[in-house]
Structures are given as C-alpha cells and as structure tokens.
Amino acid sequence: MSERGTPTPVRPEGGAALGCGPDRREAAERERAHTGGSRILAALEAVRDPELDEPITSLGFVASCAVSAAGDARVRLRLPTYFCAPNFAFLMVADAYDAVSAMGGVRSTEVVLEDHFAATAINRGVAARAGFARSFDGEAAGELDELRADFLRKAVLAGTDLVCRPLLAAGVEPAALVTLRLGELPPSRELDRLRQRRAELGLPAGDGAPLLVDPATGAPVGADAVPLHLRRARTTRVSVEANAGICRGMLRHRYRTAGQGESREGGEDR
C-alpha cells in the first residue's frame, strides 16, 4: 500500500505497471466496438434482399459495421456485381439506414454502398432521405413501393411451397390443402416466415386464415385452382433459391472474403 492507502499497481518483472493505462483503454475500446458491431449486425438481420428474400447479413452483403462510443454508426455494404439493379440496391441501403438509425444509443448513421456503378447517387439519396425518384431524378419513373410488394408476393408463393411440401410428403392430398388453416399446421420456421410475409402485404396471417391464398388479393384458392397454384409456388421457390445461389457464388468470386454475419451454409434457415 502507498502512504495514502492507494493500492500500488503490480508491475510484472520487466514490464509496465498494470492498471488503467493505454493498453487497458484500448482493450475497452475494442470491446465496445465489438459489442456495437454485434448490435448493428442484429439490426441488419431484418434487412432483406428484396428479390432473394434473405437477410443481407447471411448473404454476405455487409462488408463492415461499427459504432463509436459516442453513438456514430458506420456500415459498408457490397453486392455481387458492379451492375446489380440500382432499385434493388437502393432498397437495401435505405432499409439498412432505417434499421441502424432506429437502434438505441445511435446518434448518427452512415450507410455506404461500395463498388457499384450507381453508388454515388444511392449513397447521397439515402443520406438525404430523398427517396428513389429524387435520387435518380429524370431516370426513375417513381418510388419503389410496388416493386417491394411484387417481391413480397413472390416470397409468399415461395413460402407456401416450403410449408406445403412436408404436408404433401406426409400424405395430405393437394385438394385437402384448401380446407387447412394456418393455426392447424405444425409449428415451423417456414410457417412463421410465411405468416410474416403475408402480414407485411396485409394478407390474412392469423390462425383462422386459409393456408392457400392468392398473394395479390388474399382470396382463398379454390379447389380447382390448387394444382396451378402449387406449381406456381414451387417454380417461384426454385427460382428464388437458384438466384440466391448464383449471387452467393458471384459475391465470393468478387471479394474472396466473408461478409459480416455471412452464412456459408446457403442462407437463412428455411
């Protein structure tokens, strides 16, 4: 003990005294940065590629993310090619900005799309909260609400196939599917996901809702339309999964490094 009763820092042989020196402060800063980055990744898991219906995290689109001790969040996004559709890219950057900005303790947000031909227009537009049409003034026909809805309808069809396949494999006749309600089905990630996508579109998603509905109107599918509906659902699901596989392969070829939160197993649990 020192004269004033303060513990004397232990000094390892040949080393510096242990205490609140630069090394300890740097370690604390690294820990805060790691924790903040994990929180951002968790928020970004809610941001999906509109076409592939998978989180941008599991797809490998998050190049980096961090938040300072003062609450300044920085996110860098990347895409499989330089020419990925600018409307899809804008939706992901804007959604990422909204997700991170909504986090507690974040005072400012910067989301930057890198290595893309329209990156400047997208990054400026999102930062200014200008919307797609103003960001691409003279080039865009309008905002992207209908595009988002179109892809959600495809997600509902693909999700319907994922929920119906186990039922059909278990011996349920296709015609019997029209009588089933969501609340009668066994719990599963696929069912939860289908409910979520239907709710986002304003379609029936409660326990009493029919399993088979028209994704454009929410109307129940009639017995005579079941075969065509199931074919459309399967075709949509196969197309979405194939596109996701192609995008993953192109991204890995382009960057050779995994993104933050990337899933190497082929995406979100289905």
Strand order of the largest sheet: 3-4-5
What is the helix content?
40-55%
> What general form does the structure show?
elongated
**Total tally of structural domains:** 2
Percentage of residues in DSSP E strands: 5-15%
Q: Poorly predicted ranges (pLDDT <50, ≥5 residues)?
A: 1-18
Radius of gyration: 24 Å
Q: Count of DSSP E strands?
A: 5
The residue-averaged pLDDT reads: 90
What is the terminal separation in angstroms? 61 Å
The structure class reads: mainly alpha
What is the helix/strand order? HEEHEEHEHHHHH
The largest pleated sheet is described as: 3 strands, mixed
Work out the helix count.
Answer: 8
Task: Describe the 3D structure.
This protein has 270 residues and is mainly alpha-helical. The chain has two domains: 30-135, GMP Synthetase, Chain A, domain 3 (2-Layer Sandwich), CATH 3.30.300; 145-254, no CATH class. Helices cover 46% and strands 8% of the residues. It contains eight helices and five strands, in the order H-E-E-H-E-E-H-E-H-H-H-H-H. Strands 3-4-5 form a three-stranded mixed beta sheet. It has a two-stranded antiparallel sheet with strand order 1-2. Helix 3 (86-101) runs parallel beside helix 4 (119-127), helix 6 (145-169) packs antiparallel against helix 7 and helix 6 crosses helix 8. It starts with 21 loop residues before the first helix and ends in a 15-residue tail after the last helix. The model is unreliable at 1-18 (pLDDT under 50).
